Amino acid sequence: MTTGLQTRDLTLGYSGEPVIRELNLSIPKGKVTVFVGSNGCGKSTLLRSLARLLKPWDGSVWLNGKDIARQSTKKTARELAILPQGPVAPEGLTVLQLVKQGRYPHQSWLQQWSAEDESMVQWALEVTQMTSYSERSVDSLSGGQRQRAWIAMTLAQGTDTLLLDEPTTYLDLTHQIEVLDLLFTLNRVERRTVIMVLHDLNLAARYGDHLVAVRQGQVYAQGAPENILTPELAREVFGLECQIIPDPLFGTPMLVPQGQGRLLPPNTLTGTGD
Asked: How does the protein's chain sit in the membrane according to the entry (predicted)?
């Protein structure tokens, strides 16, 4: 397995409380890796640290064989790009203006806006199908369009590694699939390394080559979805009883949660069944 991002004895936390403890993790290069786990387990904290947005308490993060803490922010931004959860653009900012911000790491006093910058922006708009929206304000777009605009800005950075925190949050199912299809295509066609946090285990198993299940600040299991997604994992990581069956379309593991559903008798809560 070729490794791009690694953590070595990484410890992270907030306000005196550790969230990630002495974590050693290797993320495969050129694959789609998905972090899964219950709320508060440390997924987003870990992603922020991988992008050099959160300073470790101890340990280190390495990218392509180098400690990212020992290189400049701009150099890191030329190698990896992150899309945080629920980003907000300044009021009135157009899609084109937003996407152009992705080229900031490549600008300097000596290197101003270039033909390469323009080409990358136009490519990012085209691949995300946002060219026709370039003059629209970001805040006037639908949820799916807005997310594609932010992804376009991330792509315009021209990095080999993309980190995305909950890229499908607040989107309906149609737009979730639209965004994940785009990221999957970028991985398969452009060979970009994609690392993201997802809540939906079934979508994680469908799109991820490599799952990392996080539990209480540690990796509970990692590997191909078909190798690690089991009822035991769902029970230990999510506190959920379930069955795992093959996805009828893709053959990937599909989680079917147990629960009352229609088994619950009518008026059970009121006690006035008739």
From this structure: Peripheral membrane protein
